[in-house]
Amino acid sequence: MSPSPFISIILPVFNAEKYLKPAIDAILNQNYSNYELLIINDGSTDGSEQIANSYSDQRIRYFYKNNEGVAKALNYGLRLAEGKYIWRHDADDISLPDQLEKQVYFLESHSMYALAATQIAFMTDRGKIAYDFRQPKNEYFQNKEFIEVRKEHFNPYSPITHATVLMSRDVVLNLGGYRTEFKTSEDTDLWLRLLDNHKAAVLNKCGYFVRLNKTSATRRYRSGTDFYRTLAINFADQRLKTGTDPLMRGEPMPAPKVQPTPKETDQTPGRVYRSDLLNFVYKVYLNAADLAEIRKVWYLALRDGWKLSSTWRGLIFPLLPGSFIKAGVKIKALLR
User: Fold this and answer.
1) Average of pLDDT values for 86-112?
2) Distance, CA of 35 to CA of 2 (rounded, Å)
3) Among 27, 38, 122, 143, which is most exposed with the fewest C-beta within 10 angstroms?
4) 209-228: per-residue pLDDT in tens?
5) DSSP codes, 273-320
6) Cα 147 versus chain centre, distance
7) Pairwise CA distance, residues 153 & 191, whole Å
8) What is the separation, in whole angstroms, between the first and last Cα of the chain?
9) What is the pLDDT of residue 321?
10) pTM, whole model, 2 decimals?
Protein backbone atom coordinates (compact mmCIF):
# COMPACT_ATOMS: atom_id res chain seq x y z
CA MET A 1 0.00 0.00 0.00
CA SER A 2 1.21 3.52 -0.76
CA PRO A 3 2.51 5.33 2.37
CA SER A 4 -0.06 8.03 1.69
CA PRO A 5 -3.14 6.64 -0.07
CA PHE A 6 -4.86 9.27 -2.18
CA ILE A 7 -8.33 7.85 -1.52
CA SER A 8 -9.82 6.36 1.64
CA ILE A 9 -12.73 4.02 0.93
CA ILE A 10 -14.94 3.45 3.99
CA LEU A 11 -17.00 0.26 3.93
CA PRO A 12 -19.36 0.08 6.95
CA VAL A 13 -20.51 -3.47 7.59
CA PHE A 14 -23.36 -4.80 9.69
CA ASN A 15 -24.43 -8.43 9.19
CA ALA A 16 -23.68 -8.30 5.47
CA GLU A 17 -22.18 -11.75 4.92
CA LYS A 18 -24.57 -12.52 2.06
CA TYR A 19 -23.33 -9.58 -0.04
CA LEU A 20 -19.96 -8.55 1.41
CA LYS A 21 -17.65 -10.50 -0.89
CA PRO A 22 -19.10 -9.06 -4.14
CA ALA A 23 -18.85 -5.56 -2.62
CA ILE A 24 -15.19 -5.98 -1.62
CA ASP A 25 -14.35 -7.59 -4.96
CA ALA A 26 -15.92 -4.63 -6.79
CA ILE A 27 -13.71 -2.24 -4.81
CA LEU A 28 -10.54 -4.26 -5.38
CA ASN A 29 -11.35 -4.37 -9.11
CA GLN A 30 -11.37 -0.58 -9.46
CA ASN A 31 -9.12 0.77 -12.22
CA TYR A 32 -7.85 3.44 -9.84
CA SER A 33 -5.65 1.70 -7.27
CA ASN A 34 -4.07 4.31 -4.97
CA TYR A 35 -6.49 3.86 -2.10
CA GLU A 36 -6.93 2.29 1.29
CA LEU A 37 -10.03 0.26 2.10
CA LEU A 38 -11.24 0.74 5.67
CA ILE A 39 -13.68 -2.05 6.55
CA ILE A 40 -15.60 -0.92 9.65
CA ASN A 41 -17.41 -3.86 11.22
CA ASP A 42 -20.21 -2.25 13.21
CA GLY A 43 -20.82 -5.12 15.63
CA SER A 44 -21.81 -7.81 13.13
CA THR A 45 -22.94 -11.11 14.59
CA ASP A 46 -22.76 -13.12 11.36
CA GLY A 47 -19.80 -14.23 9.26
CA SER A 48 -18.84 -10.74 8.02
CA GLU A 49 -15.60 -10.70 10.00
CA GLN A 50 -14.40 -13.99 8.53
CA ILE A 51 -15.12 -12.75 5.01
CA ALA A 52 -13.30 -9.45 5.56
CA ASN A 53 -10.26 -11.18 7.07
CA SER A 54 -10.07 -13.68 4.20
CA TYR A 55 -8.46 -11.03 1.97
CA SER A 56 -4.71 -10.47 1.90
CA ASP A 57 -4.66 -7.21 -0.09
CA GLN A 58 -2.33 -4.80 1.72
CA ARG A 59 -4.64 -1.86 1.03
CA ILE A 60 -7.30 -3.30 3.36
CA ARG A 61 -7.50 -2.18 6.99
CA TYR A 62 -10.06 -3.98 9.13
CA PHE A 63 -11.62 -2.58 12.31
CA TYR A 64 -14.25 -3.90 14.69
CA LYS A 65 -16.45 -1.69 16.88
CA ASN A 66 -19.58 -2.14 18.92
CA ASN A 67 -22.81 -1.59 17.02
CA GLU A 68 -23.84 2.08 17.17
CA GLY A 69 -25.33 2.70 13.74
CA VAL A 70 -24.01 3.69 10.33
CA ALA A 71 -23.39 7.39 11.09
CA LYS A 72 -21.06 6.60 14.01
CA ALA A 73 -19.36 3.88 11.97
CA LEU A 74 -18.71 6.42 9.20
CA ASN A 75 -17.37 9.01 11.64
CA TYR A 76 -15.09 6.31 13.04
CA GLY A 77 -13.81 5.67 9.55
CA LEU A 78 -13.32 9.38 8.89
CA ARG A 79 -11.02 9.63 11.91
CA LEU A 80 -8.95 6.70 10.63
CA ALA A 81 -8.82 7.82 7.00
CA GLU A 82 -5.57 9.10 5.51
CA GLY A 83 -6.62 9.95 1.95
CA LYS A 84 -7.32 13.32 0.38
CA TYR A 85 -10.76 12.11 -0.63
CA ILE A 86 -13.34 9.84 1.02
CA TRP A 87 -15.56 7.31 -0.75
CA ARG A 88 -18.19 5.41 1.22
CA HIS A 89 -19.15 2.13 -0.43
CA ASP A 90 -22.10 0.09 0.84
CA ALA A 91 -21.56 -3.53 1.88
CA ASP A 92 -24.48 -4.82 -0.20
CA ASP A 93 -23.85 -2.89 -3.43
CA ILE A 94 -21.46 -3.25 -6.37
CA SER A 95 -19.69 -0.73 -8.60
CA LEU A 96 -18.10 -0.81 -12.04
CA PRO A 97 -14.28 -0.69 -12.35
CA ASP A 98 -14.20 2.90 -13.67
CA GLN A 99 -16.45 4.37 -10.95
CA LEU A 100 -13.68 5.73 -8.71
CA GLU A 101 -11.33 6.63 -11.55
CA LYS A 102 -13.78 9.01 -13.21
CA GLN A 103 -14.71 10.75 -9.96
CA VAL A 104 -11.08 11.28 -8.99
CA TYR A 105 -10.40 12.79 -12.41
CA PHE A 106 -13.40 15.11 -12.06
CA LEU A 107 -12.46 16.46 -8.63
CA GLU A 108 -8.82 16.87 -9.54
CA SER A 109 -9.72 18.76 -12.72
CA HIS A 110 -12.52 20.80 -11.10
CA SER A 111 -10.93 22.11 -7.92
CA MET A 112 -13.93 24.32 -7.13
CA TYR A 113 -15.95 21.20 -6.19
CA ALA A 114 -15.62 19.44 -2.83
CA LEU A 115 -17.92 16.54 -3.70
CA ALA A 116 -18.70 14.44 -6.77
CA ALA A 117 -21.50 11.87 -6.87
CA THR A 118 -22.90 9.81 -9.73
CA GLN A 119 -26.16 8.32 -10.91
CA ILE A 120 -27.11 4.85 -9.64
CA ALA A 121 -29.27 2.03 -10.97
CA PHE A 122 -31.21 -0.37 -8.77
CA MET A 123 -30.66 -4.09 -8.74
CA THR A 124 -32.49 -7.02 -7.23
CA ASP A 125 -31.42 -9.00 -4.19
CA ARG A 126 -29.93 -11.56 -6.58
CA GLY A 127 -27.83 -8.95 -8.37
CA LYS A 128 -29.85 -8.47 -11.57
CA ILE A 129 -29.75 -4.83 -12.65
CA ALA A 130 -32.75 -2.69 -13.64
CA TYR A 131 -30.94 -0.24 -15.92
CA ASP A 132 -34.07 1.84 -16.55
CA PHE A 133 -34.60 2.57 -12.85
CA ARG A 134 -32.02 5.21 -12.05
CA GLN A 135 -31.51 7.94 -9.50
CA PRO A 136 -31.37 10.77 -10.28
CA LYS A 137 -33.46 10.16 -13.38
CA ASN A 138 -31.87 10.84 -16.75
CA GLU A 139 -33.93 14.02 -17.16
CA TYR A 140 -32.10 15.58 -14.21
CA PHE A 141 -28.91 15.94 -16.26
CA GLN A 142 -30.43 17.80 -19.22
CA ASN A 143 -27.91 16.00 -21.49
CA LYS A 144 -25.01 17.65 -19.62
CA GLU A 145 -21.89 15.85 -18.37
CA PHE A 146 -22.65 16.89 -14.82
CA ILE A 147 -25.06 19.04 -12.82
CA GLU A 148 -24.02 21.37 -10.03
CA VAL A 149 -26.22 20.56 -7.05
CA ARG A 150 -28.31 23.29 -5.46
CA LYS A 151 -30.44 23.25 -2.35
CA GLU A 152 -33.69 23.30 -4.33
CA HIS A 153 -32.69 19.97 -5.90
CA PHE A 154 -33.39 18.24 -2.57
CA ASN A 155 -37.15 18.54 -2.93
CA PRO A 156 -38.60 15.97 -2.76
CA TYR A 157 -35.50 13.73 -2.73
CA SER A 158 -31.76 14.17 -2.57
CA PRO A 159 -30.06 14.01 -5.98
CA ILE A 160 -26.93 12.71 -4.20
CA THR A 161 -26.81 8.98 -3.51
CA HIS A 162 -24.61 8.51 -0.46
CA ALA A 163 -22.65 5.48 -1.64
CA THR A 164 -21.53 7.20 -4.86
CA VAL A 165 -20.02 10.21 -3.10
CA LEU A 166 -16.33 11.06 -3.42
CA MET A 167 -15.65 14.04 -1.17
CA SER A 168 -12.85 16.08 0.34
CA ARG A 169 -11.79 14.62 3.69
CA ASP A 170 -10.70 18.01 5.05
CA VAL A 171 -14.03 19.64 4.16
CA VAL A 172 -16.04 16.87 5.83
CA LEU A 173 -13.86 16.88 8.96
CA ASN A 174 -14.18 20.67 9.21
CA LEU A 175 -17.96 20.19 9.13
CA GLY A 176 -17.70 17.77 12.05
CA GLY A 177 -18.60 14.71 10.01
CA TYR A 178 -22.03 13.14 10.18
CA ARG A 179 -24.39 14.44 12.85
CA THR A 180 -25.50 11.31 14.67
CA GLU A 181 -28.62 13.02 16.01
CA PHE A 182 -30.11 12.20 12.61
CA LYS A 183 -31.33 8.61 12.88
CA THR A 184 -31.63 8.59 9.11
CA SER A 185 -30.95 11.22 6.38
CA GLU A 186 -27.66 11.99 8.14
CA ASP A 187 -26.20 12.09 4.64
CA THR A 188 -28.71 14.67 3.37
CA ASP A 189 -27.90 16.82 6.40
CA LEU A 190 -24.18 16.58 5.58
CA TRP A 191 -24.64 17.45 1.90
CA LEU A 192 -26.74 20.51 2.77
CA ARG A 193 -24.19 21.70 5.33
CA LEU A 194 -21.44 21.23 2.76
CA LEU A 195 -23.39 23.30 0.24
CA ASP A 196 -23.47 26.23 2.67
CA ASN A 197 -19.88 27.06 1.67
CA HIS A 198 -18.79 24.56 -0.99
CA LYS A 199 -19.87 23.15 -4.33
CA ALA A 200 -21.04 19.64 -5.21
CA ALA A 201 -21.75 17.92 -8.51
CA VAL A 202 -23.55 14.82 -9.76
CA LEU A 203 -21.86 13.25 -12.78
CA ASN A 204 -23.91 11.92 -15.66
CA LYS A 205 -22.49 8.45 -15.21
CA CYS A 206 -24.12 5.26 -13.94
CA GLY A 207 -21.52 2.89 -12.54
CA TYR A 208 -22.94 2.03 -9.13
CA PHE A 209 -25.75 -0.44 -8.44
CA VAL A 210 -27.88 -0.30 -5.29
CA ARG A 211 -29.32 -3.57 -4.11
CA LEU A 212 -32.94 -3.76 -3.00
CA ASN A 213 -32.99 -5.92 0.11
CA LYS A 214 -34.88 -5.93 3.39
CA THR A 215 -31.80 -5.46 5.58
CA SER A 216 -30.60 -2.13 4.16
CA ALA A 217 -30.56 0.77 6.59
CA THR A 218 -32.79 2.84 4.32
CA ARG A 219 -35.54 0.23 4.43
CA ARG A 220 -35.13 -0.48 8.18
CA TYR A 221 -35.67 3.19 9.08
CA ARG A 222 -38.12 4.08 6.32
CA SER A 223 -40.80 5.24 8.78
CA GLY A 224 -38.64 8.14 9.96
CA THR A 225 -36.99 9.03 6.67
CA ASP A 226 -39.47 11.74 5.65
CA PHE A 227 -39.26 13.39 9.08
CA TYR A 228 -35.46 13.59 9.16
CA ARG A 229 -35.13 14.57 5.49
CA THR A 230 -37.57 17.44 6.01
CA LEU A 231 -35.74 18.41 9.18
CA ALA A 232 -32.41 18.56 7.34
CA ILE A 233 -33.95 20.92 4.76
CA ASN A 234 -35.52 23.07 7.49
CA PHE A 235 -32.16 23.28 9.26
CA ALA A 236 -30.54 24.42 5.99
CA ASP A 237 -33.17 27.17 5.67
CA GLN A 238 -32.41 28.33 9.21
CA ARG A 239 -28.67 28.46 8.52
CA LEU A 240 -29.34 30.56 5.42
CA LYS A 241 -31.40 33.04 7.45
CA THR A 242 -29.53 33.11 10.78
CA GLY A 243 -26.18 31.41 10.20
CA THR A 244 -26.97 28.56 12.59
CA ASP A 245 -29.40 25.72 13.14
CA PRO A 246 -30.76 24.20 16.39
CA LEU A 247 -27.97 21.62 16.74
CA MET A 248 -25.31 24.25 16.17
CA ARG A 249 -26.93 26.31 18.92
CA GLY A 250 -26.87 23.37 21.30
CA GLU A 251 -30.63 22.93 21.29
CA PRO A 252 -32.17 19.46 21.60
CA MET A 253 -32.94 17.52 18.46
CA PRO A 254 -36.67 17.54 17.67
CA ALA A 255 -38.21 14.10 18.09
CA PRO A 256 -40.30 12.51 15.37
CA LYS A 257 -44.00 12.68 16.02
CA VAL A 258 -45.43 9.27 16.70
CA GLN A 259 -47.68 8.53 13.79
CA PRO A 260 -50.67 6.29 14.41
CA THR A 261 -50.55 3.05 12.52
CA PRO A 262 -52.67 3.58 9.41
CA LYS A 263 -55.80 1.49 9.45
CA GLU A 264 -56.34 -0.70 6.45
CA THR A 265 -59.79 -0.38 4.97
CA ASP A 266 -59.99 -4.16 4.98
CA GLN A 267 -57.69 -6.74 6.55
CA THR A 268 -59.73 -9.76 5.60
CA PRO A 269 -57.91 -12.50 3.67
CA GLY A 270 -57.65 -11.66 -0.01
CA ARG A 271 -58.23 -7.92 0.48
CA VAL A 272 -54.81 -6.61 1.55
CA TYR A 273 -53.06 -4.58 -1.15
CA ARG A 274 -49.27 -5.10 -1.07
CA SER A 275 -48.16 -1.56 -1.85
CA ASP A 276 -44.70 -2.40 -0.47
CA LEU A 277 -44.22 -4.67 -3.46
CA LEU A 278 -46.40 -3.36 -6.26
CA ASN A 279 -45.71 0.39 -6.15
CA PHE A 280 -41.98 0.17 -6.99
CA VAL A 281 -40.18 -3.08 -6.23
CA TYR A 282 -42.16 -5.18 -8.72
CA LYS A 283 -41.35 -2.76 -11.54
CA VAL A 284 -37.64 -2.99 -10.73
CA TYR A 285 -37.83 -6.78 -10.82
CA LEU A 286 -39.58 -6.68 -14.18
CA ASN A 287 -37.01 -4.33 -15.67
CA ALA A 288 -34.19 -6.50 -14.33
CA ALA A 289 -35.91 -9.63 -15.71
CA ASP A 290 -35.45 -11.40 -12.38
CA LEU A 291 -37.99 -14.17 -12.84
CA ALA A 292 -37.48 -15.66 -9.38
CA GLU A 293 -38.29 -12.35 -7.66
CA ILE A 294 -41.20 -11.70 -10.03
CA ARG A 295 -42.73 -15.04 -9.08
CA LYS A 296 -42.38 -14.16 -5.38
CA VAL A 297 -44.23 -10.87 -5.90
CA TRP A 298 -47.07 -12.61 -7.72
CA TYR A 299 -47.36 -15.20 -4.97
CA LEU A 300 -47.34 -12.70 -2.09
CA ALA A 301 -49.55 -10.12 -3.78
CA LEU A 302 -52.19 -12.67 -4.75
CA ARG A 303 -51.97 -14.51 -1.45
CA ASP A 304 -52.87 -11.32 0.41
CA GLY A 305 -54.98 -9.42 -2.13
CA TRP A 306 -56.41 -11.72 -4.76
CA LYS A 307 -59.92 -10.33 -4.25
CA LEU A 308 -58.85 -6.75 -5.05
CA SER A 309 -58.99 -5.37 -8.57
CA SER A 310 -56.13 -3.04 -7.61
CA THR A 311 -53.90 -6.06 -6.99
CA TRP A 312 -54.58 -7.46 -10.43
CA ARG A 313 -54.03 -4.05 -12.03
CA GLY A 314 -50.77 -3.67 -10.13
CA LEU A 315 -49.55 -7.02 -11.42
CA ILE A 316 -50.79 -6.85 -15.01
CA PHE A 317 -50.47 -3.19 -16.05
CA PRO A 318 -46.65 -3.04 -15.75
CA LEU A 319 -46.51 -5.95 -18.21
CA LEU A 320 -48.34 -3.98 -20.89
CA PRO A 321 -46.66 -1.69 -23.45
CA GLY A 322 -46.49 1.96 -22.40
CA SER A 323 -48.44 3.02 -25.49
CA PHE A 324 -51.31 0.74 -24.44
CA ILE A 325 -51.46 2.31 -20.97
CA LYS A 326 -51.42 5.85 -22.38
CA ALA A 327 -54.24 5.03 -24.76
CA GLY A 328 -56.29 3.59 -21.90
CA VAL A 329 -55.76 6.72 -19.81
CA LYS A 330 -56.95 8.93 -22.70
CA ILE A 331 -60.05 6.83 -23.26
CA LYS A 332 -60.86 6.89 -19.56
CA ALA A 333 -60.51 10.68 -19.53
CA LEU A 334 -62.85 11.03 -22.52
CA LEU A 335 -65.49 8.88 -20.88
CA ARG A 336 -65.64 10.97 -17.73
Assistant:
1) 97
2) 8
3) 143
4) 999 975 544 444 455 788 99
5) --HHHHTTHHHHHHHHT-HHHHHHHHHHHHHHHTT-HHHHHHHHGGGS
6) 19
7) 11
8) 69
9) 84
10) 0.90
